[in-house]
Design goal:
single chain, alpha/beta, 6-stranded mixed sheet, 3-stranded antiparallel sheet, 7 helices, 22% strand
């Protein structure tokens, strides 16, 4: 049995950022069923949105987000998202994250679907997710976080008061390892790779949702599956996505 203060299951931006923040106060073990670079976050291209330009406002970002979600969104969650976005971007930059700049050193802000202002930051063009992940992986290497790869979480351990007190994992050799922790965080993503045509990483197969459901958690809004709306389709196979930035800058889809 292995003990930790906090266990984080997953390997995307949410998992890495949670682990880094938690490690300021507790010993953290980060567990992923494959490699740390195998996630939807690493594949994300379009960019990251924040109302940071002089002409933009947090209120505009909120309005755009609610309208894009047909107001099905939880308004309070949207408020937190748009209000904290500028400070999160500033923190990333302070910690060494490099976003794209124009010739005079000004941050380049793109326009994408559903946004009324240019507020999309990119890194190395359309490799934003990859470079944010590489930045966070670099921070991870400089921390005291223990990273366990190729270990699939197979069962959450539930205590007498119905709280999660750990997780059981299975490695590629079939070895079962039990981890105990004060807190366990699931940051495993959705289940998009269950579909035949998808831009999702093959590791995004609903494991975390199933773990939580089996342990007694309530799940909701399961009809929302993350897909990119435009894939490059070659010889009957989805070979990658056509970035949202293409439509944001005026391209039109043609159905032949």
């Amino acid at each position: 049995m292995v003990k930790a203060g906090i266990i984080v299951i997953g390997s995307g931006i949410a998992a890495l950022k949670t682990a880094l923040e938690a490690s300021k106060h507790k010993h953290v073990i980060l567990i992923t069923k494959s490699k740390i670079r195998h996630s939807n976050s690493y594949l994300a291209q379009g960019g990251i949105a924040a109302a940071i330009s002089d002409r933009d406002r947090v209120s505009y970002h909120k309005k755009d987000t609610l309208e894009a979600g047909q107001r099905y969104n939880k308004e309070k969650a949207v408020e937190i998202l748009v209000e904290e976005a500028p400070s999160v971007i500033a923190e990333l930059i302070r910690s060494g994250m490099q976003f794209d700049h124009d010739h005079d050193g000004t941050l380049m802000l793109g326009m994408e679907g559903a946004h009324s202002e240019r507020r999309i930051l990119h890194s190395h063009g359309d490799s934003t997710g990859k470079y944010i992940m590489e930045h966070l992986i670099g921070c991870l290497k400089n921390s005291l976080i223990t990273v366990v790869e190729n270990a699939a979480a197979v069962e959450l351990i539930i205590g007498k008061d119905d709280s999660c007190i750990g997780v059981k994992t299975l490695d590629k050799a079939g070895k079962l390892v039990t981890y105990h922790a004060e807190r366990t965080v699931l940051a495993t993503g959705g289940c998009g790779s269950l579909y035949h045509f998808t831009s999702n990483s093959q590791t995004v197969s609903g494991d975390g949702i199933a773990l939580a459901f089996k342990a007694g958690a309530k799940v909701r809004d399961m009809e929302f599956i993350q897909f990119h709306p435009t894939l490059l389709f070659i010889n009957g196979k989805a070979e990658g996505l056509v970035s949202e930035a293409v439509r944001g800058d005026g391209a039109r889809l043609a159905f032949l």
